[in-house]
Specification:
heterodimer; A: 923 residues; alpha+beta; 8-stranded mixed β-sheet; 6-stranded mixed barrel; 23 strands; B: 114 residues; 3-stranded antiparallel β-sheet; 3 strands; 63% helix; globular
């Protein structure tokens, strides 16, 4: 590049002399800075014309001092300028006190951003995308993990659990006698309450629906310190033994949605499970019980709920007539919560509760396993201790991923700002030459970045608010409705602006550092050759970082996607296509056993009459739906072993048509007959895994299984092919089928159709309503969708990583494009020269493409390394695929390089089309 | 109108006319303008620095002239001003008004151009 002769620069002595005369003008605005520079140039011309030695400060001073004009210049110009201010804000700034500087900077920054709308729009979009994603995920993480529950003095509340080695999640519910004993014995607690979830049928004017209810002990609300939004909440008097009141409290959301927040609801009668109950009040807004993500529609006293036939979801083993669950020390179905005395320490209280638990084991040796009581601070329990770990991992992985995306957006923005800083070197140099301090300039640049971040933050909030509204509408196909009620509340807003401020520091420092590096002399000569190459290296590094991060995310997305595809190919052990399923709980609607049997007899006939239906079965529940019923079983020969050593086996109760309708084949033996079911015979069909475990290498058919000491053993009549029961990814699990009594009232309905395209949930619903217009039906859907929950994790992983990875790739492509386009425009002169000297256009194209692809390849290499090192963290989410699957890595790398090539082609083509003659003139 | 303000208006009008006329030929920078006014009037007319730049900024604000920074190889960058179409129209009006003024003054004073 051609160097300019040095005398084309304003001599320092002259600059100093003029500057001292222009102090009054100041450099607060760009406009004034320009005036000052124009006058400086004028002085330069005049000095040259009069042959003043401009290198000698004394000579210059003497010359200017002799000219009255120069001494009055600044004041006059400033006066003239201020009398013509169009901008009121600027007048405010000039009139203001100490805050003037900052407000002036804001006005200045706003004007500067408005003057380059293209840059501003792209910058705000980048930030909005990044900040919007982070805010959305934060609103989820906050609701699930961070936000305190709306209870009084949360720190003094502890959750109580029964600890047993063999239980499914490690921490399980307690029995009412246990809770009562803890309350009576603990000196460090002010009270103990219990609660459990249950389903009830709620009848409103036009329909009947199955809703989730929280059955709570009478002191539940008092203990938590929750206030009513209307009426009153439940009191100990509502839940007296032998005299439970027919009262109900509504959840706030349900009050708003079903009853339009009508305060007149208090005192009205509702029919629940066919019985009239009086609404006494509505729980406080925002209170949704103690299980995060689960929203009870109503709250019932425990005694009332049991009288209505509501079975706690935590109860194993069914309800037996004449047996009150509340009296059973070994029937554990209540989640416990206690309030610690203000004077008692956390550890002191925990030690006391654990000691009481150990005393239970000694006092009640008939309990089959060794148990203890665990007390965990309420703050540490999100849903259940056993699943909280998983929820935490998923939440933080997700959060980490979106933070990565925000970093990519910041890197891109830093890139754009660097390019802009180069274009503004002249402006900055002028400000510096006129005496603006470096801090002053840094402040101006930071204010500009802060303004961008604020606008980006606002746009991001709008984006997050749309995203959370969409997420709230999603309903997962599972029995317990998950309701997070995501909202852009105060916490999210505060967080978002904290993030926006932080991003300002990340991307806003780049132009500041750039401005600090600005060397006056070189800047004024607007030389870009030397500084340019260093800057390009920095920008190149940013692009490489983006490609690296995008590759990491895309690999995660690819692995999750293949994991979903694998999981969908897994044979669940039954035919999932072409069938419709629904869940019914007749006992909740006042059906007694006789009516239930009659209902299901008719249902079987009417469903079979639907055109295209080839099979109907009515089991207790289906596999892969998160419902489990677990029994202790043992080969008859080993019945002498203690029950605690008998293996736990999941079971389902099924009818005679189950195996044919579901497509479960038997490897030996036979199915149940209708007559055997009617007689309620003690028979069972077991799966291959259980058969192999109980009688390795022998035929299981004809053998006997013990199910409880003293009970008549079960005769094995068949062995069924293995399937999947709890999750699709599980290891082979023992399973047993038993006959379902005809009067079993809570069942899943499955109607199989001749062909998948004939399957019609509407036809099934029509038949159900035809028999009972008020019937509450849960989860009526295609069988394929009913078992959907088992695929939620890998599906969500693929969706989330895929969406975010694609956005990341897009950002990286924009970054690469921006960098190359900028580089090409900087090198127009050089490229023109090359062309003039005989370089072929194809060479130019290749040169630019090579620049782009070199960066992409470097990023891809780093990304591959990072992916190999980190995707192991995904192992628990993946099914049937290695975290370092070569095929996935390969496809992602090819995709990424293809996008990088595309992003490079546009600037490369522009470079190729440069007209050498025009480029040589362009400067 | 007082004599003083008439005087000021006249001077301002004259200065506007001078600058607009010089820019009608081609784009020029501030120093060049001040030098040309001095040269062409053989030193009898000068514009103070402050007056010149205040004038330029006023004309620019009104949209009659447009300034932009230009860099030429081997030279310092300078702010050049050119006439806008509105400025060109104004120049025509100002020229006519000036001619009428001169004619009126001549008619009254009986002076004639040499």
């Amino acid at each position: 590049m051609r160097e300019r002769p040095l005398q084309s620069v304003v001599p320092p002595a002259l600059r100093e002399a003029v500057r001292s005369r222009l102090l009054e003008l100041g450099v607060a605005s760009e406009h004034h800075a320009e005036i000052a520079e124009e006058l400086l140039q004028h002085a330069c011309d005049a000095a040259e014309a009069q042959r003043i030695d401009t290198s000698d400060l004394h000579a210059v001073e003497a010359w200017l001092a002799g000219d009255r004009e120069w001494s009055e210049l600044a004041r006059e110009l400033a006066r003239s300028a201020s009398s013509h201010r169009q901008n009121r804000a600027e007048r405010l700034v000039r009139a203001g006190g100490p805050a003037t500087g900052l407000l002036g900077d804001v006005v200045q920054a706003a004007r500067s951003l408005r003057s380059s709308p293209g840059f501003t729009i792209v910058a705000i979009l980048l930030l909005a995308l990044g900040i919007g994603l982070v805010a959305t995920v934060f609103s989820v993480v906050d609701r699930v993990l961070l936000a305190p529950l709306p209870v009084e003095d949360e720190d003094r509340l502890v959750r109580l659990f029964s600890r047993a080695e063999d239980s499914f999640f490690g921490h399980s519910p307690l029995s009412l006698p246990e809770l009562d004993d803890i309350e009576a014995q603990a000196q460090t607690l002010t009270g103990v309450a219990g609660f459990a979830l249950t389903f009830t049928a709620l009848e409103t004017a036009d329909r009947s629906e199955l809703v989730l209810a929280n059955m709570v002990t009478g002191d539940f609300f008092d203990l938590l310190g929750v206030r009513p939004a209307a009426g009153r909440l439940l009191k100990p008097g509502d839940d007296r033994r032998g005299d439970p009141q027919s009262v109900v409290v509504l959840g706030h959301e349900s009050w708003v949605q079903r009853f339009g927040a009508d305060p007149g609801i208090v005192g009205r009668e509702l029919r629940i499970n066919g019985q009239p109950l009086v609404v006494v009040g509505v729980a406080a807004r925002g209170f949704r019980g103690l299980l995060r993500g689960v929203e009870p529609t109503l709250y019932l006293p425990v005694g009332t709920a049991l009288r209505l036939g509501a079975e706690p979801s935590t109860n194993a083993g069914g309800l037996e007539p004449g047996v009150d669950l509340r009296d059973q020390r070994t029937r554990r179905w209540l989640w416990g919560v206690a309030r610690r005395l203000e004077s008692a320490g956390v550890d002191e209280s925990r030690a006391e509760i654990e000691a009481i638990g150990r005393a239970f084991a000694a006092a009640y040796p008939e309990d089959e396993t060794e148990r203890g009581i665990a007390a965990l601070p309420l703050r540490e329990v999100k849903v259940m201790p056993g699943v909280d770990g998983g929820i935490r991992t998923i939440s933080w992985v997700l959060f980490g991923v979106v933070v990565l995306v925000l970093l990519i957006a910041c890197a891109n923005l830093a890139n754009l700002l660097l390019a802009r800083a180069v274009r503004r070197r002249q402006e900055m140099a002028t400000r510096l030459s006129l005496g603006a301090g470096r801090w002053q300039i840094a402040r101006l640049l930071l204010v500009e970045s802060l303004l961008l971040a604020t606008l980006g933050g606002l746009a991001g909030l709008a984006l997050a608010s749309a995203a959370t509204a969409t997420l709230n509408r999603i309903r997962l196909p599972i029995v317990v409705p998950i309701e997070l009620h995501l909202a852009i509340d105060q916490r999210v807003v505060v967080f978002t602006f904290a993030v926006a401020a932080l991003t300002t520091l990340i991307f806003g420092l780049a132009p500041v550092l750039e401005s600090w590096r600005t060397d006056l002399a070189t800047a004024l000569r607007r030389d870009t050759a030397r500084g340019g190459s260093r800057r390009r290296r920095l920008q190149g590094a940013l692009v490489v970082a983006q490609v690296t991060l995008s590759l990491l995310l895309l690999v995660a997305a690819g692995l999750s996607l293949r994991s979903v595809l694998n999981a969908q190919r897994i044979d669940p052990g039954f035919e999932i296509e072409g069938a419709v399923a629904a869940t019914l709980m007749l006992e909740l609607q006042g059906y007694d056993e006789g009516r239930s049997a009659e209902f299901y007899r008719r249902l079987r006939e009417d469903l079979a009459a639907i055109p295209g239906v080839v099979g109907v079965t009515l089991p207790s529940h289906l596999p892969l739906t998160l419902w489990t019923d677990t029994w202790r079983l043992v080969p008859k020969e080993q019945e002498h072993l203690p029950v605690s050593e008998w293996p736990s086996v999941d079971i389902a109760r099924v009818d005679a048509d189950y195996f044919e309708t579901m497509g479960v084949t038997l490897v030996s033996g036979r199915t149940f007959s209708a007559a055997e079911i009617a007689d309620n015979r003690r028979i069972a069909i077991i799966n291959e895994t259980l058969a192999g475990r109980f009688w390795p290498g022998e035929d299981a058919v004809g053998r006997l299984i013990g199910s409880a000491p003293g009970d008549e053993p079960l005769l094995v009549v068949g062995v069924a092919r293995n399937g999947r029961y709890r999750t699709l990814g599980e290891d082979p699990r023992p399973f047993a089928y038993m006959p379902i009594p005809d009067d079993w009232s809570s069942r899943t309905v499955v109607a199989r159709f001749e062909r998948p395209d004939l399957a019609s949930p509407a036809a099934v619903a029509g038949v159900l309503r035809g028999i009972d217009r008020h019937l509450a039906i849960s989860n009526l859907a295609m069988l394929r969708d009913v078992i959907g929950p088992s695929l939620i994790l890998p599906r969500a992983g693929a969706l989330v990583f895929g969406a975010i990875g694609s956005i990341g790739l897009l950002l990286a492509a924009v970054g690469l494009y921006g960098l190359l386009a900028y580089a090409v425009s900087q090198r127009t002169h050089e490229i023109g020269l090359r062309l003039a000297l005989g370089a072929r256009r194809a060479d130019v194209l290749r040169m630019v493409l090579r620049d782009g692809l070199r960066l992409a390849l470097a990023g891809a290499a780093l990304g591959l390394g990072a992916a190999v090192a980190t995707t192991r963290a995904l192992r628990s989410l993946l099914y049937g695929i290695s975290p370092t699957d070569g095929w996935t890595f390969g496809v992602v790398v090819i995709l990424l390089l293809a996008v990088a090539a595309l992003a490079s082609v546009l600037p490369a083509r522009r470079a190729m089309r440069i007209d050498p003659t025009r480029a040589m003139r362009h400067d | 109108m007082s004599t003083a303000s008439t005087d000021r208006e006249l001077k301002k009008g004259a200065a506007d006319l001078l600058v607009l006329s010089l820019l009608a030929e081609r784009q020029r920078h501030g120093y060049e303008l001040s030098r040309l006014i001095e040269q062409r009037s053989a030193g009898s007319l000068t514009l103070h620095l402050a007056s010149l730049y205040t004038l330029l900024y006023r004309l620019e604000r009104k949209g009659w002239i447009a300034g932009r920074w230009v860099e030429k190889p081997g030279e310092r960058r300078r702010r050049f001003y050119r006439l806008t179409p509105a400025g060109r129209a104004l120049l025509g009006e100002e020229q006519e008004r000036w001619l009428e003024f001169v004619k009126a003054v001549s008619a009254i004073t009986g002076l004639r151009h040499a």
